Amino acid sequence: MRVISGKQGGRLLAPVKGRVRPTSDRLRETLFNILGEAVAGSKWLDAFAGSGAVGIEALSRGARHVVFNDTSRDAVRLIEKNLQMTGIEEGFEIRELEVFSLFRRIDLSDVDFVFLDPPYDFGRYEKLLAKMCALSRLKPGVRIILEVFKKTAVEPPECLRLVRQLESGDSHLLFFTTDN
């Protein structure tokens, strides 16, 4: 795994061990090509950060701030190691919370992108999206990207509108936004 582009482009990330299923280099490259110039100066929440690769890619491409979150202490250590390996020293915070607790505690009113990549066996995608809407003040026009197994169907709650879908390998990216 490596950082694809930006200031830290080409730098290697630490190898992933255990249950963490990182977003592939190819899928990250496609994701950030789709998002393009909107990444520069943006704020992100990477709610199931795992290795931190998506948030690190965002910072490398000019994001202003990323909140990395994962429930696993090992994942948090891996995120810290990858930030150190890439030389990123500012513009981020790391949390170690269960995602529904995170949504109760975080203010998303100024977050531009929310990246959700729960484990493929998570299975509560509709609840995840609905709770995020109910518990967090979402910025109008926020972009929410959900990565799921390619055969997973997700029905968005009324607060979100599906604007794009992308399948790559075993993954399916769903792009949502708020209607307000």
Based on DSSP secondary structure assignment, what is the total number of beta strands? 7
- What proportion of the residues is helical, as a percent range? 25-40%
- The name of the CATH topology is Rossmann fold
Uncertain parts: none
Looking across the biggest beta sheet, what order are the strands in?
3-2-1-4-5-7-6
Structural commentary:
This protein is of the alpha/beta class. It has one domain (25-178): Vaccinia Virus protein VP39 (Rossmann fold), CATH 3.40.50.150. Helix content is 28%, strand content 23%. The chain has 5 helices and 7 strands. It has helices at residues 25-35, 53-60, 73-86, 99-105, 125-135; strands at residues 43-46, 65-69, 92-95, 113-116, 143-149, 160-168, 171-178. It has a 7-stranded mixed beta sheet, covered by helices on one side. Strand 2 (65-69), helix 3 and strand 3 form a beta-alpha-beta unit. Helix 4 packs parallel to helix 5 (125-135). The radius of gyration is 15 Å and the shape is globular. The N and C termini lie far apart (37 Å). The mean pLDDT is 92.
